[in-house]
Amino acid sequence: MNYRNAKYLMGASLVEQLPDDYGIEVAFAGRSNAGKSSALNALTEQKKLARVSKTPGRTQLINLFTLEEHKRLVDLPGYGYAKVSEKIKASWQKTLEMYLTTRQCLKGIVLLVDSRHPIKDFDCMMIEAAVGRDLNLHVLLTKADKLKNAEKAKAERLMRDYLKQLRVRDNISFQLFSAQTGTGLEKFKQKLDAWYELPFIELNDGIEEN
Questions:
Q1: Distance between CA atoms of 25 and 18, rounded to whole angstroms?
Q2: Count H helices, E strands: the chain?
Q3: What's 74's DSSP letter?
Q4: Which among 56, 97, 159, 201 is most buried, taking Cβ atoms within 10 Å?
Q5: Which of 78, 131, 71 is nearest to 100 (CA)?
């Protein structure tokens, strides 16, 4: 897959505003300071595909990017540090949950977790949601360039122990990653390539077919 071909398609505040539910979507999720935009930009080799802001929580829409026909990247709203009202935060969470539970073309979730800190409640919620729906999920332990080797090993051990506790299947995986140095980028691309090769439903004259 040539991720450099990624082009902005649209932004939606509600699931109902998204394109027809067919093809393959891979969604990026993470707390607002986990490095989601940086990872998207590193993946696509485009410095401004996803806007990196000094103000966490800037992504307030479900942003879609096309890769090839029927294949899309999805940037979900960051969660946790946005300076907005609780009402808006609750609305974002409802939209996020609806997307995860109803979007049939969603073939995988990339969850970005800051490797320097313990896993947070939101991260646990995302992993458990993926397990509950039997969705493919790949955790990027971001900002690995800021860790010493012993700290990297600890971050991996903590994530491995958490997943073992959940008794997850082999469709849940994780790796260390750095958008700044490119650490883990090729391994990450291989994971996404496999997801984009999965079977999907096509639309043929308005009729869904396998």
A1: 11
A2: 5, 9
A3: E
A4: 159
A5: 131
